[in-house]
Amino acid sequence: MRIAYIINSLEGGGAAFPVPSILSLMRDYGAEVKVFALTQKNGKALPAIHKANIPVSIREGGIKDHFQTLLWLNQQIRNYKPTHLWTSLTRATLLGQLVGLRHNIPVISWQHAAYLKPWNLRLLKTTRSFSKLWLGDSQRVTQFTQQRLHIPKEKIMTWPIFKANPNVLKAKVCQSDHTVKIVSMGRLHPVKGYDILIQACHLLNQYSNVPAYHISIYGEGIEYKNLYNLIHQYQLQNHIELMGFTSCVAQTLSQYNLYVQPSRSEGFCVAAHEAMQAGLPVVASAVGELPFTIENHKSGLTISPENPSALADALYKLLLQPQDLYAMGQLARETVITQFSTKRFNTIGFEVFNRMQSFTST
């Protein structure tokens, strides 16, 4: 088996995060693998792929030159001669499906989001039969994909993209007389809802007797300037800081007491699960996989999305009980280590591999 894994970009986080784990496992089962990136973007996902010794071809170009991208991908696939195409995210899936159809190569397609833009939804509905197998990265995404794209049950599987590591650094006990250190990680993009977090902090500071807190947001993206200006508009410089990108995720998370994920929409949300793995309780929007993993009032709190007032209330509640954060974080850690073990990841991966072996080029 020779797999061409087609991905939109090599931007850090998101759909690029699980690529080394997925393709390393496929390689362990005997497949030859290679990544084809339709554009590089910030390239922050590249070091992990190189570390896994996975070869990569990267197209020079942007995100809207679709015809040129299709020509490039078609030539790459003609030269590589894969037995299977594996696609991730809408652009890569649509172009991969066309190339797969052209060369009679079976296509396997990831879905990573519990929301699709209307036009993307229409396109994927039209081409859904071009993929032999669909994979949802979480229960919620699988349900969404099955319902909205009308995928038959026998053509879709759930493979959670997170493989928990019980040996990562763990967060420490939060001292009641110290500043509560709050963290979030993600692309600075509207979907991640950091503007909502900033508005929530503005409301929070109007409450009485708010304990000392500081929020660090790690990530890069198109919303940096808007978020920076909003922080200054609300005079929150002493409470919120934009930290930039970090590749030292586990080490960074271990320095904090609480994690917040204010997203408007999510699929699996690897970052929040990494925080739970590190022993942090999570305050998050009830979107994607998050309400399935977070146990309310035990390992964290979930709130309605796009609701600064509810987010402020949730943060305030936990800030008032810093002595409970460590115990909540330990329960969060136990949850993800149990639910997303290496054994489970590998077992589902083997099922996917066996399904792929039954697909043959014509």
TrEMBL record:
Keyword field contains Phosphoprotein: no
UniProt-listed Gene3D superfamilies: Glycogen Phosphorylase B (3.40.50.2000)
GO molecular function: glycosyltransferase activity
Domain Glycosyl transferase family: 180-334
InterPro entries linked to this entry: Glyco_trans_1
Keywords: Transferase
Signal peptide start-end: none
Protein name: Group 1 glycosyl transferase
Annotated source species: Commensalibacter papalotli
